[in-house]
Design brief:
alpha+beta, four-stranded antiparallel sheet, disordered N terminus
Length: 147
């Protein structure tokens, strides 16, 4: 929200209209589901680790970060990366990806990382994708998406 030095208007009823808009904004904020604002604080922005040509097509919260699923339409590959909000300490982190019909993970990156785990890749054109991320003890698995 941008701060203004003078929010008053000279038209009749202008202050009342602005007060009503302010009340509507507060009502909208009050209807945000519990935890949604907290999740925004805990989410981590995509870091571009998958490389050029990959765009974010899906994401999911995991602990103090986010797992991202990306896709490159020029080569048909999906990529996943688990990104932490802060990269101070090095907790156990993991990211895994596979085609939905495969029984195991096609590609995995795990270890004690400061900022992110991955990238990991799988050919995704014409396939549903399973992807997994972990930060510390928090885990997230998403099955059969982006078909």
């Amino acid at each position: 929200m941008t701060a203004r030095t003078d929010s008053r208007t000279r038209r009749p009823g202008g202050l009342v209209a602005k007060a009503m808009l302010g009340a509507a904004a507060l009502t909208a904020l009050a209807t945000v589901p519990a935890g949604a604002a907290e999740q925004q604080i805990l989410s981590a922005p995509y870091n571009g680790a998958c490389g050029s040509g990959y765009g974010v097509v899906n994401s999911a919260p995991v602990g103090e970060g986010t797992i991202y699923l990306t896709y490159n339409s020029s080569n048909g590959y999906n990529c996943a990366v688990t990104v932490r909000r802060n990269d101070g300490t090095k907790p156990w982190m993991s990211v895994k990806i596979s085609q939905g019909e495969d029984p195991g993970w096609a590609s995995t990156d795990e270890g004690y990382f400061g900022g992110y785990a991955g990238p990991v890749y799988v050919y995704g054109k014409g396939h549903c994708i399973d992807w997994f991320g972990a930060i510390g003890t928090a885990t997230m698995i998403v099955n059969d998406t982006n078909c």
